């Protein structure tokens, strides 16, 4: 067990307890031991002055791709978890589209064990809905949950067979397991490579209409309503999808939604010049869509922020746009992008942002995270909300560098990340 | 021309070119036309230059046209095609480019199935890169030769009404025509089945006709695009027969026009599908003139990118080094 840590004098923001004031936080035996003013650490305690910094429950990312097993040249569970720690994330949900797929209990156990061995973050596996992500045969969902899966998903592709989807959601509800949905009508997206609109027409690239996402989200909300299952919509990017989620919530459908930092910050104009680091699915959309997902996040129609961290080797991205794979990394830039886009300018205050990066996603996946209440896991992020820095991918802890934010100024830097009371990232030297 | 117009390292598209740059290419093509009419079709303008024609897609007209242009300017040329090269062994474009560069070349003419491939190459090698068609993006020399042909017959492009008919969605020729013609002041329209008209095309400054009869009523020039058989298999149109019935450019339709209409086609033609033979071979067809102009346009582009000055194009033609 690591030494107790006393984080003294920081601005403690914990929306789960409606806290936002200068307090001390004592972490011991992997848990939050005490929170209050003028705390004294026990003998041998590491005493850290964090005045001027924000102390918050560690961030929770419901949507990352750690590539192991199968593509360890892009990322490993250890390197991805290290990148998470650098970004202030203490819990991450690892998607099952690895090689082999995470579709049996042994594979779930492997991801958990590798996560624990690395120790940089809690790595929670997401199990596949269908064997091999083929959309044909349901996985042993109960066994996956028993082995430690916190959700089911065929992320990267939708479950196109509505019958299979309804049975999987119905069955998963026995275990209170949410279905994480990559919602897309593949017939409408028709092998497109970027958002359909004036930019795709001018570049001569095949477009993915926003209707492909809207139709997928609508179908998934209808199936959730039919089954009573818990639906979480991954990476919402369109104005239409926002309206469909809003309407479903109003009807009482058990649906939540996330948005990525890149969909909050960038439009399809970022693709000009055939920039493959701006290629992801769903694609970057129009300015009207960006405005809609921002508003929806503020209103609460979109519940939380998730990165869809999708590492790719530079060779895979250094290709013709058509052939480059979809996906961008996000763990190490999420805070800086969200502060710049949402907090600067006053759309969200800091407690609002922390709620969406930590408390709300923890609730969606029933994770022991998102709070600094006494007795909870000592997962803590300490960050400087004012610090401006330039995004330099060569300094990433992730093995991959595929970010659309390279060279941009971001706001807010993680100073310390603690997982179960252990310091897993120490950026104090960066100051 | 009174002032020297600067050109960049590459020609990847007409979208980024200025009025002066486009006009200069068209003007420089004029003196080069005559070289191809001589018994000895060669001038020493690019003597000692090495040019690679890198064709990832099949092409006859464009590849041969570039090769004639290069040879008539005395360049040394090498042709690489998709089959029978390291491309089929899975070598990436960036590696192919680096290897060619390592052999010290001066220019690459690239035809590739992916939009942006020419720009991709241009960003990675110091040689001049000329786009000979990239995916569904641009085919700038085709756009230029179409413009030169229209200018030859109509005197000017400013204010002329040009309609591009056919598969606009998948057409690089359409995009280059739109960018180039609108830049020089022409009014441009597109016409075709709605499944083959891309979303957002109006934002490029063109109007859209759903019916070819309306296009014919409006236009002074029709640029008729090839309809590829794959479009039917992919479900964009129900059949070639139906396409011809509703969108084909026929004598009967042209007879309804209030004026004579100049007919262009970038080739290769599907006679009886997008264009009837009597139109293709008729008195207002300039389809073969386009092919002749293609060589002159490519000579002009090669000359200008190699650093030749517009003012000296006439002299270059006479055999003096520029």
Sum this structure up briefly.
The complex is a heterodimer of chains A (431) and B (322). Chain A is an alpha/beta fold and 431 residues long. Chain A is 30% helix and 23% strand.
- N-end to C-end Cα span of chain A: 28 Å
Shape of chain B: globular
Uncertain regions spanning at least 5 consecutive residues of chain B = none
Instruction: Output the strand order for the largest sheet of chain B.
Output: 7-6-5-8-9
Counting helices, strands and paired strands, the structural category of chain A is alpha/beta
Let me know the number of strands of chain A.
Answer: 18
Mean pLDDT of chain A: 97
Strand share of the residues of chain B? 5-15%
Oligomer designation: heterodimer
Order of helices and strands of chain B: HEHEHEHEHEHEEHEHHHEHHH
> How many helices of chain B in DSSP terms?
13
Largest sheet of chain B, if any?
A: 5 strands, parallel
Helices and strands of chain B: which structural class? Answer: alpha/beta
Compute the number of helices of chain A.
Answer: 13
What does this structure look like?
The complex is a heterodimer of chains A (431) and B (322). Chain A has helices spanning 77-86, 105-118, 141-147, 162-172, 186-189, 198-203, 210-227, 239-250, 261-265, 287-299, 314-317, 334-343, 350-364, and strands at 5-14, 19-28, 31-36, 46-49, 54-57, 59-64, 89-94, 122-127, 151-152, 179-181, 194-195, 207-208, 231-233, 255-259, 304-305, 380-390, 409-419, 422-426. Chain A is an alpha/beta fold. In chain A, strands 1, 2, 3, 4, 5, 16, 17 and 18 form an 8-stranded mixed β-sheet that branches. In chain A, strands 6-7-8-9 form a 4-stranded parallel β-sheet. In chain A, helix 4 packs across helix 7 (210-227). The model of chain A has no long low-confidence stretch (mean pLDDT 97). By secondary structure, chain B is α/β, with parallel strands linked by helices. Chain B has helices at 19-33, 61-72, 93-102, 117-122, 140-154, 172-183, 212-218, 229-233, 240-247, 251-255, 277-280, 287-305, 313-317, and strands at residues 50-55, 76-81, 107-112, 128-134, 161-165, 187-191, 207-209, 221-224, 262-264. Chain B has a 5-stranded parallel β-sheet with strand order 7-6-5-8-9. In chain B, strands 2-1-3-4 form a 4-stranded parallel β-sheet. In chain B, helix 4 links the parallel strand 3 and strand 4. In chain B, helix 1 crosses helix 5. Chain B starts with 18 loop residues before the first helix and ends in a 5-residue tail after the last helix. The mean pLDDT of chain B is 93. Chain A binds chain B through residues 196-207, 209, 273-274, 315, 318-323, and chain B through 15, 92-94, 112-117, 119-120, 134-138, 172, 175, 198-201, 203-204.
């Amino acid at each position: 067990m690591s030494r107790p840590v006393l984080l003294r004098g920081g601005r403690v923001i914990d929306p789960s307890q409606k806290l936002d004031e200068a307090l001390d936080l004592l972490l011991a035996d992997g848990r939050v031991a005490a929170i209050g003013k003028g705390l004294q650490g026990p003998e041998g305690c590491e005493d850290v002055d964090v005045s001027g910094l924000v102390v918050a429950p560690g961030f929770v990312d419901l949507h990352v791709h750690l590539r192991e097993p199968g593509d360890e040249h892009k990322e490993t569970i250890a390197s991805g978890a290290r990148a998470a720690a650098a970004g202030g994330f203490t819990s991450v949900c690892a998607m099952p589209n690895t090689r082999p797929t995470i579709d049996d209990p042994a594979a779930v156990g492997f991801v958990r064990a590798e996560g624990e061995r690395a120790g940089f973050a809690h790595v929670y596996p997401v199990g596949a809905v269908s064997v091999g992500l083929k959309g044909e045969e349901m996985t042993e969902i109960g066994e996956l949950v028993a082995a430690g899966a916190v959700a089911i998903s065929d992320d990267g592709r939708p479950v196109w067979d509505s019958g299979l989807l309804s049975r999987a959601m119905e069955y998963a509800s026995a275990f209170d397991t949410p279905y994480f949905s990559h919602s897309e009508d593949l017939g409408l997206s028709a092998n497109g490579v970027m958002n359909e609109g004036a930019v795709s027409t001018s570049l001569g690239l095949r477009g993915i209409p926003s209707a492909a996402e809207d139709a997928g989200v609508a179908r998934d909300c209808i199936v959730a309503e039919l089954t009573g299952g818990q639906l979480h919509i991954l990476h919402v990017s369109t104005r239409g999808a926002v309206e469909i989620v809003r309407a479903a919530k109003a009807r009482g459908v058990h649906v939540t939604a996330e948005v990525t930092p890149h969909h909050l910050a960038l439009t399809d104009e970022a693709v000009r010049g055939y920039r493959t680091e701006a290629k992801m699915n769903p694609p970057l959309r129009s300015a009207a869509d960006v405005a809609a997902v921002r508003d929806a996040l503020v209103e609460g129609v979109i519940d939380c922020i998730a990165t869809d961290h999708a590492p790719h080797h530079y060779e895979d991205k250094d290709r013709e746009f058509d052939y480059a794979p979809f996906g961008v990394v996000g763990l190490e830039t999420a805070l800086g992008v969200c502060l710049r886009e949402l907090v600067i300018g006053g759309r969200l205050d800091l407690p609002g942002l922390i709620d969406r990066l930590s408390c709300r996603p923890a609730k969606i996946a029933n994770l022991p995270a998102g709070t600094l209440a006494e007795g909870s896991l000592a997962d803590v992020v300490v960050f400087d909300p004012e610090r401006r820095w330039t995004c330099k991918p060569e300094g990433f802890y992730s093995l991959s560098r595929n970010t659309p934010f390279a060279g941009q100024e971001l706001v807010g830097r993680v100073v310390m990340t603690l997982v179960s009371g252990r310091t897993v990232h120490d950026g104090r030297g960066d100051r | 021309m009174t002032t020297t117009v600067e050109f960049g390292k590459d020609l990847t598209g007409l979208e980024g070119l200025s009025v002066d740059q486009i006009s200069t290419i068209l003007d420089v093509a004029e003196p080069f036309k005559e070289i191809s009419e001589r018994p000895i079709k060669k001038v020493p303008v690019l003597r000692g230059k090495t040019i690679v024609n890198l064709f990832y897609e099949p092409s006859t007209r464009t590849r041969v046209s570039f090769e004639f242009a290069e040879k008539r300017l005395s360049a040394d040329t090498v042709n690489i095609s998709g089959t029978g090269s390291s491309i089929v062994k899975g070598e990436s474009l960036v590696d192919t480019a680096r290897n060619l560069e390592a052999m010290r070349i001066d220019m690459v003419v690239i035809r590739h199935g992916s939009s942006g491939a020419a720009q991709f190459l241009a960003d990675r090698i110091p040689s001049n890169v000329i786009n000979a068609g990239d995916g569904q993006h641009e085919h700038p020399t085709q756009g230029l030769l179409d413009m030169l042909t229209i200018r030859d017959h109509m005197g000017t492009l400013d204010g002329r009404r040009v309609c591009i008919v056919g598969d606009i969605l998948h057409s690089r020729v359409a995009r280059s025509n739109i960018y180039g013609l609108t830049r020089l002041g022409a009014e441009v329209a597109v016409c075709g089945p709605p499944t083959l008209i891309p979303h957002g095309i109006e934002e490029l400054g063109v109007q859209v006709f759903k019916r070819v009869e309306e296009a014919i009523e409006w236009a002074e020039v029709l640029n008729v695009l090839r309809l590829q058989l794959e479009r039917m298999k992919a479900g964009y149109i129900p059949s070639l027969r139906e396409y011809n019935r509703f969108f084909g450019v026929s004598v009967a339709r042209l007879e309804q026009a209030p004026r004579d209409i100049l007919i262009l086609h970038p080739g290769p033609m599907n006679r009886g599908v997008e264009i009837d033979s009597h139109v293709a071979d008729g008195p207002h067809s300039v389809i073969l003139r386009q092919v002749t102009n293609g060589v002159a346009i490519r000579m002009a582009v090669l000359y200008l990118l190699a650093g030749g000055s517009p003012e000296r194009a006439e002299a270059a033609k006479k055999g003096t080094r520029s």
